[in-house]
Amino acid sequence: MPEKAGNAMLSPGEFVRHPDRPDWGLGQIQSMIGHRITVNFENAGKVVIDGNVIELVAADPGPPDVPRA
Q1: How many domains does the structure of the chain reveal?
Q2: Which of 3, 31, 55, 68 has the fewest CB atoms lying closer than 10 Å?
Q3: Which long-range contacts (CB under 8 A, 24 or more apart) does 41-48 make?
Q4: How far, in Å, are 3, 14, 22, 30 from residue 11 at the CA level?
């Protein structure tokens, strides 16, 4: 089974979301080896995704938190 097309556009360091697990929150790609994509999600920790089965969604991490004066 070929890797999902959208995953080929991603690279380590980019932020993503899992389309079926919004509760996992924002994730950052740690590594991509073949179809195995390791992502560190804010609410689920480090998860290895099978890129042949799941197409991750690129996400904007948003502006950094600005301390209030």
Answers
A1: 1
A2: 68
A3: 47/18
A4: 14, 6, 20, 9
Segment 44-50 long-range contacts (CB within 8 Å, at least 24 positions apart): 47/18, 49/18
C-alpha 39/C-alpha 17 separation (Å) is: 9
* Closest-CA residue to 21 (of 61, 59, 64, 52): 59
Contact 7, 52 (CB under 8 A): no
Give the pLDDT of residue 66.
64
d(CA 28, CA 69): 29
pLDDT, one tens digit per residue, over 9-60 is: 999 999 999 999 999 999 999 999 999 999 999 999 999 999 999 999 999 8
